[in-house]
């Protein structure tokens, strides 16, 4: 028969022998100090001073040990809680792969809540039979209270992106998932409703969403619900990728019957898209000046050598650093940055990105197709 035991019980039992030994040693030390104080005769003042000094040292050591033990327990629990929180955040807003289906990715995020990486912003990118699909969004509010809505939208996207052949079907699935979230919140806030469906569930709650689809031909299609449009990066320029008037955010109004995705043109090999949440553009410094996101992108691209593709990791890192420098590290809203570069060739295969200077020539020669 296999016996199992709860993890918490196992930890408690593992700590019992050590605690028992520590308590026994401490008790013996104090007992010896007190016994010596009581049994030693008072010959002169020097012996009395020595005894008092030894007794005081014994009690001070005991008190110091007790204080250390009291502090050590909560510190260990805090470390364990942070480890669990980190694992939960990575599952909810998992790190993006460095590349996916011929696209190179890089992302950065900032949360208003101290000690948290996940707030009210969300992003995800998946490779599907219909192309690479990307979502970036911003839940009303920020910090830890918005995580529930982030989980609802991301969980729905990770399923709908594979199941729905059309991009509008993905958006409708996200809307239904978010509406269920709002109804659950309304029931929690008004439990006296007897389980009836609320007429206007959490009317002040909403989430902005930008859906992108990059097909095998590198054409970009988009559906935008109240989210900032991305920037197209290339040739030292950062141009807003606008494709019509955005729809209202999810949760504010019902989706219209006609949800035709906008065709935003083709993303040539070597060019990139910079996606962001409004926390980047709304960030202010101590004087109240807004952060110049487009100017920061242009400055970053101006340092790129001619003919070298945009580096997503470099762009995300530079903008992230400039944003913290502008605000002095005191942000008032969550921020998410996502950069993706097209490394595909003209026929949809991976483009040959120039090798780094330190790469051996033999490796570069083997990576290129043979020529007759």
What share of residues are in beta strands?
Answer: 15-25%
The pLDDT mean sits at: 76
| CATH architecture classification name of the largest domain | 4-Layer Sandwich
Tell me the number of strands: 11
Uncertain runs with pLDDT below 50, 5 residues or more? 1-16, 346-372
Counted up, domains total 2
Query: CATH H-level name of the largest domain... which superfamily?
Result: PPM-type phosphatase domain
- What is the count of DSSP helices, taking H or I runs of 4+ residues? 8
Give the overall shape: elongated
Tell me the helix content.
40-55%
Looking at the structure, the CATH topology of the largest domain is: Phosphatase 2c, domain 1
SS-based class = alpha+beta
InterPro entries: Bact_Sigma-Reg (IPR052016), PPM-type-like_dom_sf (IPR036457), PPM-type_phosphatase-like_dom (IPR001932)
Protein name: Serine/threonine-protein phosphatase
GO molecular function, one term: phosphatase activity
Keywords: Hydrolase, Membrane, Transmembrane, Transmembrane helix
């Amino acid at each position: 028969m296999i016996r199992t035991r709860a993890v918490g019980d196992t930890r408690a039992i593992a700590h019992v022998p050590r605690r028992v030994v520590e308590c026994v040693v401490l008790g013996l030390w104090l007992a010896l100090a007190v016994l010596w104080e009581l049994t030693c005769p008072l010959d002169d003042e020097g012996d009395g001073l020595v005894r008092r000094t030894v007794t005081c040292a014994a009690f001070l050591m005991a008190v110091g040990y007790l204080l250390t033990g009291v502090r050590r327990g909560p510190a260990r629990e805090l470390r364990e809680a942070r480890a669990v929180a980190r694992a939960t955040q990575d599952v909810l807003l998992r790190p993006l792969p460095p590349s996916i289906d011929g696209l190179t990715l890089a992302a950065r995020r900032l949360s208003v809540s101290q000690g948290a990486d996940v707030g009210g912003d969300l992003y995800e990118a998946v490779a599907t039979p219909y192309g690479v699909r990307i979502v970036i969004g911003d839940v009303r509010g920020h910090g830890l209270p918005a995580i529930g809505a982030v989980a609802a939208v991301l969980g729905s996207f990770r399923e709908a992106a594979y199941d729905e052949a059309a991009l509008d079907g993905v958006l409708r699935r996200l809307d239904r998932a978010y509406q269920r979230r709002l109804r659950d919140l309304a029931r929690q806030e008004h439990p006296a409703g007897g389980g009836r469906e609320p007429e206007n569930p959490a009317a002040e709650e909403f989430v902005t969403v930008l859906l992108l689809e990059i097909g095998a031909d590198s054409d970009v299609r988009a559906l935008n619900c109240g989210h900032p449009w991305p920037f197209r990066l290339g040739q030292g320029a950062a141009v807003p990728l606008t494709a019509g008037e955005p729809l209202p955010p999810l949760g504010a109004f019902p989706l219209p019957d006609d949800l035709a995705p906008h065709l935003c043109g083709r993303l040539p090999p070597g060019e990139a898209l910079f996606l962001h949440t409004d926390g980047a553009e709304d960030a202010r410094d101590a004087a109240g000046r807004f952060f110049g996101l487009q100017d920061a992108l242009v400055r970053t691209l101006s340092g790129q050598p001619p003919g070298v593709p945009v580096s997503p990791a470099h762009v995300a890192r530079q903008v992230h650093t400039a944003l913290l420098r502008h605000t002095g590290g005191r942000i008032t809203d969550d921020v998410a940055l996502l950069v993706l570069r097209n490394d595909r060739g003209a026929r949809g295969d991976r483009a040959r990105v120039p090798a780094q200077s330190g790469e051996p020539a033999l490796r570069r020669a083997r990576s290129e197709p043979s020529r007759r």
